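@channel sequence for tomorrow's demo:
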Amino acid sequence: MKLKNINFGLGLVALLALSSCADDKFSEYRTDMTKNLKEYQYLNNYEPLKKYVEDMKASGKCNPDFKLGIALAAPDFNKQELVYCLAGSNFEEMTAGNAMKYASCVKDDGTFDFNTVKDFVTNAQDAGLTIYGHTLAWHSQQNKKYLSKLIADKEIQVDPSQKVEKEDAYTDFSTMNSFPFYVMGYTPEIKDGILISKYPGDWYQYFVVDNYPVDVDAKREYKVTAMIKASEDGQIDVQTGNWGATTSQKMSVSTQWKEQSVTFSGLTTEKAFVVFQPGTFAGDISCKWVKVTHSEAPVMEIFTDQVSNGNLDSSKPTSCFVVREAGKKDVAGTPVAGGPEGKNCIVVHANANASTEWDTQFFIYTPNKAWSKDEQYKVTFWYKATKQIGADTQCHNTPGGYMHHQCLNPNPTFTTEWKKYESTGKIPEQGDGMHAIAFNLNKGTESTAIDYYFADIHWYTVEKGNKIPLTDEEKKDTLTWAMGKWIDGMMAATDGYVTSWDVVNEAISGKKGADGFNELQHATNALPSDVANSFYWQDYLGDIDYVRTAVRDARKSFAEHNGDPSKLKLFINDYNLEGYWDQHAKLKSLIHWIGLWEDPNAEEPVVIDGIGTQMHVTCYGDATKQAKLQSDIEEMFKSLAKTGKLIKISELDMAYEDEAGTSVTFDKMTEEQHKQMRSFYTFIIQKYFELIPQAQQYGITQWCATDSPKDSGWRAGCPTGLWDSNYLRKHTYAGFAVGLGAPEYWKEAK
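structure tokens (generated this afternoon):
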């Protein structure tokens, strides 16, 4: 059933129509003017926004598939009340602000909850509205707890006979004078340091341990042991777990003091208690102590490699190995054949008659690892040279950032044959914070040129423990599986109805890389506050495979869940593409990265259909600033048009900054400022249709229907909406409508 052409009105009287809107969803209704301002009267003359889009399509002025969208909260739409009516009367497509994001659908144990998504799809179908999927792959709003668990360190696998028992909880009644736990209808006696319970009836129970930790993911077996005796032989129930998730075992008791144990597996709560339930056992019970234990691998030395690609695979980056040759720039080492046992190696050439021994250097570099003083390390590598010669080692911050004259002990002595070097020690005090070991390769400033060779290079942390980290490949494989599972679940939940998606959201950072283009977002280049609440898939999947994996998974799962592959459109969505402060560096970088992701020579080439530009813009009271921004928006549209991709204004909203540079909240806005925003909306939308070719016009989505509440997490208090908080049309509504081809009714009002 399609929405009828209703006029979503101006006033709060609309609220009175909710019941009829919910029951007869598509009945036409109008509202009266509630603002006693003459200059607002003209707003009643405007039709619902989508009427102007329909007119543009009919007259051939835009892409016939163009979609006018609104962002909203899916639960609000699912209520089929005010938000439902607003969306249906004015827009053709909806974007769920949060409901379709990973964190909203994936629980801490990795299971999915797509109920809201499924209801959203059903209600959208009923209303005749399409849905734009937001978002499949992103670093923000992820279930970091679950994803981190997937790639957490794993306990070392040892023979069961080598495992040691670890205590999780211990209750010693000899230290107590009264019962220490929550009372559940019966309170045992503590007498002379012994817990004593006497049979009060068929049903009674009491805590003996509370709040012990459970490693759910490790799927451990836990043993409950008690020093216990009874007035007669028999059995009692021992229960462990937590409320709603408990399991029971029978524990034997006898008339002699004895350690009695029962074991439990499959616990599902991270905190658990132990309860005695004597049940029909009618004798007296005495208990000195109760403990909970589990068995695990013993503590041992664990070596964790802090450099990547130590085996010098030529297909992978070698950024952890830096070569400095006299008179040349620092470069990453180039792997070549010729190492020991068929391995690759790096060759460093030292010229004859060097002025200093540090003219030529080789660095082992851990950019993501700062070493602390006294931290235990182990360094291993294979090495040789064209002449027997020694080399000094130094502590450096970054390659070339000298800190201390001595690092490894002993310093290596090169020979003409391959041999293995190994050094275990502690970082010196002067090397606190270091990231690199420097090898000075001109020791003695030799009169002949010398080539130095390094292979199979590793720099380990040495720690005591019983867990080892997953390898980079293991983490990548695990997260590739997790991403595929997530995308497949979402495609199953939407059942082919959602044909357009932000396949990857906000991938580009604001930091320039060595090639002059902005890097992808990573934990290493993000703000600490962002890192704390984000999970960067690309840190593990890689800059290229991160996006390609998401694209391939989306196309595969969409087709498998009733989707027509010819209709699927996948977008890369990002913000600040209009950014005048960086000369469009972010936009240029995004286009550059899309070229890398779409490399036609890749083993499995992928296609990205479109680009979403968010456009969370500010309208400036400063005329110079405003003119510059508008010029840069034009340049953005021109650059986007040249890509040949579908172009979507994906998240359009607006704040206001006065001439003094102060952000103005919606309650402080003047009529003149509102009108400036009206003109800016008209400018943006008209320029979109003017500069984006029809074939590339996917759509425009208004991100905020109403002004942002002052307690909002998004642009708090800003005049972001086309409607105010009472769902009254604002001047910005008119500006948006005029951008879509509506008349400038305010001129008539004057």
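heads up for whoever presents: Residues 13-145+476-749 form a domain with the TIM Barrel fold (CATH 3.20.20.80).
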